[in-house]
From TrEMBL:
Coiled coil: none annotated. The keyword DNA-binding applies. Keywords: DNA-binding, Transcription, Transcription regulation. Pfam families: AraC_binding (PF02311), HTH_18 (PF12833). Residues 182-280 form the HTH araC/xylS-type domain. InterPro entries: AraC-bd, Homeodomain-like_sf, HTH-like, HTH_AraC, HTH_AraC-typ_CS. GO terms for molecular function: DNA-binding transcription factor activity; sequence-specific DNA binding. Transmembrane segments: none annotated. It comes from the Bacteria. This is AraC family transcriptional regulator. The keyword Cytoplasm does not apply. Gene3D superfamilies: Homeodomain-like, Regulatory protein AraC.
Length: 284
């Protein structure tokens, strides 16, 4: 694409976006690894921004609201909202940034996001992989890839809004079940590198298999074993970013003795190979 479209007012970008024929118009989608001491201070953009923390930590004030963002946190800010991104020397910061607008079309973003900036934590959630897939498609030319980008962006917005709605309407009824869900998720996170049976999850939580499956479908959007796969995928991404391990060593670390099985699983679930994921990472 020509020039830095993400810095322009929305109306000025549309004629330059030759592959986009309808909104949403995506003017930037990248994943970057910030160097030590990197920061942006008091910036204002004229478009919408979704900022997702792939790894690390950063202070991210928006207007008068201070936020501390860690892996999995998704922030949303509106056009002309002043914001800063301030990293800390002892922590990495790897982030996916999406900049987009809807042209002259209205979009009911406040109805969806309830005036929130922090939209939730999506670590080990399909939204994280959808964000990575969007970045991968954005780097490819042509109408088909751009349509994938637009479709993924709308799916991301819908998934996030659905979680916000669900949280608002079920907060009281979930008070008793959420600690059990956290126990299971923590167990999966701690033991992701080995085979896990559903009976172990029953023992950890004291819940039946059917209740566990229902709980995960309602709150996580997938089964416990699918969630385990997402954990392994994201641990693999983390190792690819933070270490010099070979792909076979990464596969072994996340519970796959065969690198080819791992590679097929990673591409099936994310739409890209681990090599492509690493190639999409921009160092600034």
């Amino acid at each position: 694409m020509t020039g830095n479209l993400s810095a322009l007012p929305p109306a000025e970008t549309i004629d330059m976006l030759t592959d986009y024929h309808f909104p949403p118009y995506i003017t930037l989608a990248h994943m970057f690894h910030a160097p030590q001491g990197w920061a942006i201070r008091n910036r204002e953009m004229t478009q919408f921004i979704l900022q997702y923390v792939v790894d690390g930590f950063a202070h991210y004030p928006i207007g008068d609201n201070p936020y501390e963002t860690r892996r999995g946190d998704l922030l949303f800010h509106r056009p002309n909202e002043k914001h800063s991104i301030i990293t800390e020397n002892h922590s990495p910061y790897v982030c996916i940034s999406l900049v987009f607008h809807f042209g002259t079309s209205g979009f009911p973003y406040e109805e969806l996001f309830k005036h929130k900036h922090h939209l939730g934590n999506f670590a080990d959630h399909p939204v994280e992989t959808m964000l990575s897939q969007l970045v991968a498609h954005y780097r490819q030319p042509g109408l088909v890839h751009q349509m994938h980008c637009q479709s993924l962006l709308m799916r991301i917005l819908a998934e996030v809004a659905q979680r916000i709605d669900y949280g608002a309407s079920h907060s009281k009824s979930d008070a008793l079940t959420m600690p059990k869900l956290v126990l299971i998720k923590n167990f999966l996170t701690e033991h992701y590198s080995r085979e896990i049976q559903i009976k172990e999850l029953e023992g950890v939580s004291g819940l039946s298999k059917n209740y566990i499956l229902t709980l995960f479908r309602q709150h996580v959007g997938m089964s416990p074993m699918q969630y385990l796969t997402w954990i392994r995928i994201n641990k693999a991404k983390e190792l690819a970013i933070q270490s010099n391990l070979s792909f076979s060593e990464i596969a072994d670390r996340v519970g796959y003795s065969d690198v080819h099985t791992f590679g097929r699983m990673f591409k099936k679930k994310t739409g890209q190979s681990l090599t492509q994921f690493c190639a999409n990472l921009i160092y600034v």
